[in-house]
Amino acid sequence: xxxxxxxxxxxxxVSRVFDNLPYPLVYAVFFVGAMIRAxxxxxxxxxxxxxxxxxxxxxxxDSPVVRRAETVIARFGAPAVALSFLTVGVQTALNFAAGxxxxxxWRYEVGAVVGAMMWAxxxxxxxxxxxxxxxxxxxxLWVLAAIALVGLVVLATKFTSRxxxxxxxxxVLPDPDATDPSA
Length: 183
Known about the structure:
- By secondary structure, this protein is an all-alpha fold.
- The chain contains six helices and no strands.
- Helix 2 packs across helix 4 (about 90-100).
């Protein structure tokens, strides 16, 4: 006697929506969604920077350390932005940081387009299947991952604070308008 065909059990509601749609459409939806999210986060960072410049902490945003970070991000940020799309959690932080550090928009967009293409490719093929299997089988892993993340943040904060307390303050750059006392 033939067995009745059983529909696959989905653990993630979003995957059910996209099951019967053509692949190019699903890919395009994920690509556009990734671009909207990435650019919204970037522009939130730019806005936070603009708002932060009008506060008491604003002078720190013009410090040599921040200027150096801006230079590094402007030069090497596009590959980091692209690779951040392959991570969970780091993507938002990096997109926001690119905005805060005023990464040039054209360089940011190069990284965002490449990253969104990779992200859309992963999530329109195997992404939800892997995610659903992982969460569906062991939901307690979310709790374990959250605890591990909190522990990692606490350790990193203690380590960083200790190193900052032990290091000498940053050198003050000479004022180009000051007269040379040796002359």
